[in-house]
C-alpha cells in the first residue's frame, strides 16, 4: 500500500492459491502492477472531471467523468500517457470467478464477455455518492488486513459488480423493465462468446435459448441493439483481428481455427466488416 501524494495502491497476491487482487486510485502511476497479471479482469473508473483515453482491441475508448469500463483478460489494451487520475480494480479468476459465480452477480453478457467484450457505463448522478462510499470501504478494508480480509474484499467486489450490472441493464434501451428479455439478451451474448468459433447461424443460438430465430431478432430490434447475426460476425472478426495482430498464424490457420470450412468465406466476411482483406489488415497494422 502506498499513500504518498494521496495515491493509494494495494495488492493481494497469494502464491498458494494464485489469487490476485489489485486496487489503485491512480492507474497511470503504476501501470506495471495494473497490467502484470495477464489472466485478470479489470474495472476502470474515471472519477475526475477530465477525459481518460485509451485503446482496447483497436478501438479508442474515452471515459468521461464518472464513467466505468469493464475489461477481461481477452482484451488487448494500451494506455497512452495521461495525467487524468482513474481508479482501477484488477482481479483474476482465483480471486473471484465471474463465470463460476454468474448466478450471484449475473454480469456476464452485460459487463463481461458480451459481444463487444467490454462495456462503457455512465454512472447516473444519483448513484455517484454510493459508488464513492463503496471505494471508501475498499480503502478502509486495506487498513484492516485481518483473517477476514480476503472475504471482505470479495464481498465488496460483488457489490460493485452488481451495482454496475444494474446500470448496464438500464443501458439496454426500449426494454429496461423487461427483465426476462434482458436476461435472454445477456445469455445470447454469453453464448456467442462461448460458441462463436463453431456456431455462425442465428438458428443455432435460438435453439440453445429455446426461442425462434424470428423472436430473437425482434427482441434485439426492440432493444435497439445490433442484429444477432451482426453480433456473431463482429465477435468472430474481433477474434480474427487479435490473431492477425498478436500471432504469427497464417490466414488459412486463423480461418480454420475460427470454424470456417473455406478460407475464402472468412476473407470475404472480414473484408465486408473491416473494409480490408486479412492480409492487408495485418500489413497495415504492422
TrEMBL record:
Q: Top-down, what is the taxonomic lineage of the species of origin?
A: Bacteria, Pseudomonadati, Spirochaetota, Spirochaetia, Leptospirales
Organism, per UniProt?
Leptospira levettii
**Where in the numbering of this chain does the HTH araC/xylS-type domain appear?**
186-284
Pfam families from the xrefs?
A: HTH_18
Question: InterPro entries annotated for this entry?
Answer: Homeodomain-like_sf, HTH_AraC, Tscrpt_reg_AraC-type_HTH
Q: Which residues form a coiled coil?
A: none
Q: Which UniProt keywords apply?
A: DNA-binding, Transcription, Transcription regulation
Q: Please identify the protein, giving its name as recorded.
A: Helix-turn-helix domain-containing protein
Q: Which SMART domains match?
A: HTH_ARAC
Amino acid at each position: 500500500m502506498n499513500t504518498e501524494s494521496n495515491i493509494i495502491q494495494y495488492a493481494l497476491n497469494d502464491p498458494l492459491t494464485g489469487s490476485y487482487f489489485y486496487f489503485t486510485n491512480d492507474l497511470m502511476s503504476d501501470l506495471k502492477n495494473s497490467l502484470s497479471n495477464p489472466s485478470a479482469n479489470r474495472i476502470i473508473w474515471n472519477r475526475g472531471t477530465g477525459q481518460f483515453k485509451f485503446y482496447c482491441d483497436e478501438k479508442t475508448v474515452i471515459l468521461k467523468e464518472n464513467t466505468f469500463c469493464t475489461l477481461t483478460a481477452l482484451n488487448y489494451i494500451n494506455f497512452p500517457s495521461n495525467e487524468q487520475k482513474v481508479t482501477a480494480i484488477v482481479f483474476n479468476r482465483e480471486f473471484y470467478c465471474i463465470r463460476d459465480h454468474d448466478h450471484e452477480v449475473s454480469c456476464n453478457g452485460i459487463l463481461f464477455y458480451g459481444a463487444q467484450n467490454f462495456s462503457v457505463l455512465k454512472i447516473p448522478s444519483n448513484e455517484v455518492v454510493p459508488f464513492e462510499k463503496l471505494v471508501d470501504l475498499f480503502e478502509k478494508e486495506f487498513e484492516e488486513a485481518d483473517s477476514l480480509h480476503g472475504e471482505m474484499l470479495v464481498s465488496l467486489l460483488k457489490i460493485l459488480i452488481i451495482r454496475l450490472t444494474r446500470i448496464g441493464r438500464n443501458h439496454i434501451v426500449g426494454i429496461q423493465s423487461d427483465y426476462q428479455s434482458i436476461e435472454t439478451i445477456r445469455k445470447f451474448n454469453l453464448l456467442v462468446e462461448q460458441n462463436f468459433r463453431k456456431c455462425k447461424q442465428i438458428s443455432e443460438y435460438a435453439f440453445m435459448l429455446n426461442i425462434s430465430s424470428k423472436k430473437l431478432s425482434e427482441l434485439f430490434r426492440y432493444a435497439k441493439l445490433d442484429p444477432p447475426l451482426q453480433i456473431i460476425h463482429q465477435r468472430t472478426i474481433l477474434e480474427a483481428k487479435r490473431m492477425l495482430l498478436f500471432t504469427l498464424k497464417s490466414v488459412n490457420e486463423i480461418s480454420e481455427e475460427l470454424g470456417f470450412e473455406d478460407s475464402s468465406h472468412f476473407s470475404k466476411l472480414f473484408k465486408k466488416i473491416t473494409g480490408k482483406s486479412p492480409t492487408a489488415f495485418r500489413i497495415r497494422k504492422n
